[in-house]
Design brief:
- This protein has 4 helices and 9 strands.
- The protein is an alpha+beta fold.
- The protein has a 4-stranded mixed sheet, sandwiched between helices. The chain has a 3-stranded antiparallel sheet with strand order 2-1-3, covered by helices on one side.
């Protein structure tokens, strides 16, 4: 077998695994009668939807060996207090650093779980995801990071 074929197969399988494990969440942006912009995970009862945001396929750092078992239902993640923000991260993850910088810049308090610690690794394995960062807040699980996705999530909390 040619030397580049195994590398090509590895890259193709990693790409397929990353693309196949996305779970989408939908946020709706609308403008109320008073002119206020509202973000919600439910369509507005009155008024019109200005924009629909799909929170899927956000950039993540894939954690080796973290693939959920095929067909396995994810176990409940670490318990959250009402309104608490939890960020699953690792020191080596660039997207995690960006997510932490985003929340620090916005003054958002959060609890950090490093997946390279025994407690963090156990909690992360229960999420049923492959990559980090993972943000848990208000019953939502956001896997990956972009400023636009986090803006939508945190605007919906207000």
């Amino acid at each position: 077998m040619r030397p580049f074929v195994p590398s090509l197969l590895l890259i193709a399988s990693l790409l397929a695994a990353c693309l196949g494990s996305a779970s989408a969440q939908t946020l709706y942006k609308s403008v109320g009668a008073d002119g206020r912009v509202v973000y919600s995970d439910k369509p507005p009862v009155t008024g019109t939807v200005e924009k629909t945001l799909k929170l899927e396929s956000l950039p993540v750092s894939v954690v080796p060996g973290a693939a959920p078992a095929p067909g396995a239902a994810p176990v409940a993640p670490v318990a959250q207090a009402r309104g608490e923000v939890v960020l699953y991260m690792a020191k080596w993850c660039g997207y995690c650093t960006a997510a932490k910088a985003y929340m620090a810049g916005k003054g958002i308090a959060y609890r950090e779980l490093d997946i390279d610690t025994p407690a963090g690794k156990t909690a992360f394995s229960q999420l049923g995801v492959r990559g980090i960062p993972v943000l848990l807040t208000q019953g939502q699980k956001i896997s990956g990071f972009t400023p636009q996705a986090y803006d939508a999530v945190f605007m919906a909390r207000k």
